[in-house]
Amino acid sequence: MPTYKLHYFPGRGKANPLRFVMAFAGLEWTEAGIRERKDFLELIESEKILPFNQVPLLVVDDETFFVQSGATIRYLANKLELFGEASTVEEKYNVDCHAEGSLDFYNRFVAYPFSDDKEKFLQEQIIGVAMAKYMPIFDGLLKGKKFLTGSTPTYADAILLAALEFAFDLAPKEVKKYPNVVAFNERMWAMDNFAKFKTSPNRQPLPDDLYVHHVNAGLGRI
Q1: Among residues 187, 100, 110, which one has the least CA distance to residue 137?
Q2: What is the pLDDT averaged over residues 90-106?
Q3: Does 1 have pLDDT greater than 90?
Q4: Residue 65 β-bridge partners
Q5: Average pLDDT estimate for 53-60
């Protein structure tokens, strides 16, 4: 069975959708946290994060290196057949489309811990812009369906769940205005793999000042 190691800062950030997809697939992995500048420089010097020198980095069997989180997610989705009922190119495109939309939603939350005025950012950018746009869309997509593209879950649903984790953490009252989303969230967390992930050390808490410090230190900003 393949072994997996994820190199990233000890927090959600750009790696969390990948974590949720791996959890959805039932994979087990270890985390190599980047906490200091030397940790990031070692990865650059190893040439494991070429061509863009960015993380997350997923290492498989200590010999295969995957960078660029979106590309890595799509690789796993294809390798592990995380498309649910979809079998044709057109059906898989539909899943990919929903995954991209879910990832766009998730990415709106990533800058939150770096904001100088978190309450203002929450009210204006997250609730006022991101959730105002995406929550009605996803609630509509889930009307009369268990999952985004049908009756079986796909990797797109895992990415949406990662976004909703942020949404519930930051603005639970807003989320609860959308009953189809709430039901979907409960349905996903009740799945065996996500129930296991819920208590895993690989599940990351809401990013705090220590996470911000690790990111800034790793990237040489401080």
Answers
A1: 100
A2: 98
A3: no
A4: 59
A5: 97
CA distances 184 to 47, 139, 215, Å, are 41, 9, 32
Q: How far is CA 34 from CA 9, 43, 106, 209, 216, in A?
A: 5, 10, 22, 15, 10
Using alpha carbons only, give the angle 156, 160, 163 rounded to the nearest 5 degrees: 145
Cα–Cα distance, 37 to 55 (Å, whole number): 13
Residue 124, pLDDT score = 98
Provide DSSP, 93-131.
Answer: HHHHHHHHHHHHHHHTTTTGGG-SSHHHHIIIIIIIIII
- What is the amino acid identity at position 89? V
What are the tokens at 195? 């129930």
DSSP state of 150: B
Q: 């998730």: which residue's tokens?
A: 106
Mean pLDDT on 174-199: 98
Residue 44: the pLDDT is 96
Q: Which two tokens stand for residue 148?
A: 């985004």
pTM of the model: 0.97
Q: Which residues of 90-110 are buried (b: 16+ CB within 10 A; e: fewer)?
A: ebbebbbebbebbbebbebbe
Residues 81, 191: Cα–Cα separation, whole Å: 17
111: its two tokens: 């800058």
